[in-house]
Amino acid sequence: MKVLFQSRxxxxxxxxxxxxQMIKTREYLAHxxxxxxxxxxxxxxxAAYDIVHLFNLVRPQEAYLQAANARRWGRKVAxxxxxxxxxxYEKKMRGGLAGIxxxxxxxxxxEYLKVAARAWRNREYSxxxxxxxxxxxxxxxxxxxxxxxxLLPNSASEMRRLVNDxxxxxxxxxxxxxxxxxxxLFAGRPxxxxxxxxxYRGCVLCVARIEGLKNQLNLVRAxxxxxxPLVLIGRQAPNHxxxxxxxxxxxxxxxxxxGPVEHAMLPQYYQAAxxxxxxxxxxxTGLSSLEAGAMGCQLVITxxxxxxxxxxxxxFYCDPASVESIRAAVITAYISxxxxxxxxxxxxSFTWDKTALKTLEGYSLLLxxxxxxxxxxxxxxxxxxxxxxxx
Length: 391
Fold this sequence. Notes:
47% of the residues lie in helices and 12% in strands. It contains 18 helices and eleven strands.
């Protein structure tokens, strides 16, 4: 079986959780004998592929053309929906004309305007952009779903949200494919920290893109006056320079803004931290929370989105709109003894080998009774049971 992964044009230039999910799923499918290539082209040649696997319904302008291309080639389509809703953030936190528009318009109309703005300001324009501007944001998402043969949401909560917004999605077969962390890199073993990292020992850490959606400004405000340093790691998102300036303006001497850090170095920062925070306005998972939890950090997490599907009662939840709620969660997490069950729970539940197996289960639904997918799935399960898969 050969699969083509397809996603948004900016998946590598503006990397996010969908980037990691795509790369790691490809890597671990290879352990199962499944070859997957990655393309951001809108209408590639599909002669060599059996399945097209799309990522990210929030960017329908690319997914629409990629799905339509798959249909023309007679290929089956799997969709990792990664379906988030930014409506609450847009209404409560957006400033300027964008904020006014989000309060007056429905979420689909707001996203339509954002696509138009990016086309003009960032030159993000393609045939897909033209299709979105012609048909509308929600309409294009509907068309992508209509052309999809199997849905692969990251949680049951995400699937419920998708069905709530698009009732027709309930007619599609689906497999819950959980997100995961790299157990080889974030195994929870003690890491020797470099001197420049050791100075942050006992800190409160946040690993996330610097942008309004991730809510670092409220985190900075919540940490004001607390006796522990706050360390922010992450690349500034496009068009969020002013947001970063606001963070710097309100940050005290105990706030350390480090910018992007090489992924391989993150275990040392997690090992040094006492608490990891991700107080976003919306998270389907929060990959950095998985990594930090596996390294033994206490977790403070937003209560918006799908986080409870992943972290259950192992995390301290907060309301991202409330500085007081964030502050209380950080204090409680910091002074509470770590739960020894967290590492074992994450390591047994959210690993990329399991993500690959669930993905392959979705592919088997596409190819029906044909031997290729079913045999591969059975052989892969046997490999896991025999301990032959790389974990």
